Sequence to fold (111 residues):
Amino acid sequence: MIIKKPSIYIYVNQPNPSVLREICSGIEEEGVFYEIAKQEESDVNRLAWSAANDSVLGSGIGLSGSNAALFMRGLKLGKNIAYYAHPSNEESRLLGENSARVIKKQALKGI
Fold:
């Protein structure tokens, strides 16, 4: 039997290392686990959608290059909670924080 750990999934395709590091730092600051998985898909919207639907918590992040998106299970593909093209370090960290805050049912920061 395979049991999925309750984590935010981050699906990546050739991720910008600094963006990924800041996203992960934001999630860690909120005290939530995350898992990173490389994918063949390069569409950031599809990455985020797949990550959210695969995550037990229903929160997923897609990161393709320097483009990042936050998605929640149950929303239509392309209707992201947040999307950043070439986010700054602060925006990347905020994306990570908000992915955790959404599952903790807390108010989002900066939106």
Remarks:
- The helical segments are 17-29, 44-54, 89-103.
- The chain has a mean pLDDT of 94.
- The first strand starts at residue 8 and ends at 13.
